[in-house]
């Protein structure tokens, strides 16, 4: 449940018309001079300057008091909205390829940087879902278990960098690890978004075997083949100081395996050859996997005139105490 201050309204707003009239009357009266006040101030000619200043300023408490009282008469109301949210959330694991080829510069600045940013945008759209992150290269690892705390997911995605895992592309291992992250899930809908830019060349679990496991668990897998075909700057080796050495390489990708995985698990295969296409893919998945959310909104109102009444009475009382007790006693 969440609640928040929505707005304020006035039950009798026409009372506010009196506020400028009060101030206009008071200012005009001050300029012309009030006879009674002039007579009274003759008694304080010999008073010190501080008391003289107080005697001149005390009358301003009257319009201030009347202003607060007129606001109170206008009956301010505070409106609050309370929401009761019932959501059948979806459990989503994002499996991201972390092989060295993800640093290829056919995307700007590279594939991995773009994939991370768009994944974070996707997380931000899934307010009621649990999300987790799995990374894979020559091996696989659950980087972030399923959680509804999206700031945690953002933090783990930011930490993803090449070299965290042994190099290679173990698609079957990445898929199996993602399934393991979902094994205790009780959600009615469970999906995996598996993003890679290469063909399976490592790991002890066959991608087809992992896909069969996903089918038996009722998990849909959306597969994304990321990258262009052609010659682009791509890592070819690692220097002694651990830096990747880049050189032009001819890149190709056979997506048939990813197509089969998606088809077998009742998911969908996508090909992303640009940042815009990758963004559109995540947007489409976001639309396909809509979370069922039931929101009941309750509106309540609260009277807010009492503080204004108290302030008005405070300034009126202050006026009479200063005018007829303090000043009359010490300035006569």
How is this structure best described in words?
The chain has eleven helices and eleven strands. By secondary structure, it is α/β, with parallel strands linked by helices. It has two domains: 112 residues, no CATH class; 201 residues, von Willebrand factor, type A domain (Rossmann fold, 3-Layer(aba) Sandwich), CATH 3.40.50. A six-stranded mixed β-sheet has the order 5-4-3-6-7-10, sandwiched between helices. Strands 1-2-11 form a three-stranded antiparallel β-sheet. Strand 4 and strand 5 form a beta hairpin. Helix 1 packs antiparallel against helix 4, helix 4 runs antiparallel to helix 11 and helix 7 packs parallel to helix 8. The longest helix has 26 residues.
What's the shape? Answer: elongated
What name goes with the CATH superfamily of the largest domain?
A: von Willebrand factor, type A domain
Largest sheet: 6 strands, mixed
CATH topology of the largest domain: Rossmann fold
**Radius of gyration from the alpha-carbon trace, in angstroms:** 36 Å
Cα end-to-end separation: 63 Å
Uncertain segments are: 1-5, 35-47
